[in-house]
Amino acid sequence: xxxxxxxxxxxxxxxxxxxxxxxxxxxxxxxxxxxxxxxxxxxxxxxxxxxxxxxxxxxxxxxxxxxxxxxxxxxxxxxxxxxxxxxxxxxxxxxxxxxxxxxxxxxxxxxxxxxxxxxxxxxxxxxxxxxxxxxxxxxxxxxxxxxxxxxxxxxxxxxxxxxxxxxxxxxxxxxxxxxxxxxxxxxxxxxxxxxxxxxxxxxxxxxxxxxxxxxxxxxxxxxxxxxxxxxxxxxxxxxxxxxxxxxxxxxxxxxxxxxxxxxxxxxxxxxx
Length: 272
Fold this sequence. Notes:
This protein is an alpha+beta fold. It has a 5-stranded mixed sheet, with helices on one face. Helix 2 packs antiparallel against helix 3, helix 2 runs parallel beside helix 4 and helix 6 crosses helix 8. It is elongated and about 75 Å long. The chain starts with a helix and ends with a strand. The mean pLDDT is 88.
C-alpha cells in the first residue's frame, strides 16, 4: 500500500512537472468552470425553481474534463512535433475562447440573480449586453445565426421588411445560447429553422398568434428534416433540461416550436 501511494504521488508529480508550462491555463480553466457551475446552480435553484440535478452536474464536469484533455493534448502534440511555442499559442487561444463563451454564460446567470433596478443589475446587464450582442456582431459564425433566424421566404415573396432590431437581436442571441446551440451540439447534425423572428406584418401573413414569441425574437420553429427527427428533437430538448418557455409539437411533429424568455421559464409542453 505504501509503495502504491508513493508510485501515485510520483506519477502525479511527473505529470504536473511536464504540464507546468500550461499550468496557468489549467488553473484558470478550473476557476472558470467552478464559477460557471456555482452561478448556474444558484440560477437554477433561486430563479428557475429547479431541484439539484446530478445529471446536469455530471455533464458540467464532463465538459470541463473535455477542455482539460484538449489543452493537454494540444501541448503534447506540439512538444512531439518540436514546436512547443506554437502549442502554447494554441492552448492560449483555446483558453481565451472558453473564457469568452463561458464568461457570457456566467454573466447571464449573474444578471438573473440580481435584483432588477439595482446598481449591480445595471452594471452586469451592461457588460452582458456589450459582450453578448455588440461584440458578437464581429463573429461571422454567430452573426449567421441571427441572419437565419430573421430570414423568411414568405417575407421575401410578399416584400415584407423582416429585419431584426437591436432588441430582437439580444433575444435571438439568448435563444441561440440557451436553446439552439446546446441542442445542435447534442443532436450532432444541422437543425433547420423554418421560422424565427417575425415582424408584425409577417406574423399576420402567416396567421401567427397575436401574442406570439416570434414577434419578440424569442422563438423558433425547427426541424430535423422529417417527423421522426422532429420527434427526436422534441424529446432531446427535454432530456437536456434546456430552459425553454414553451415546447410545442406542431401538427404531429410536422415541426417543433421552442421559445426562450429568461423572465418566464415555465417549461410548458404542448401538442397542437
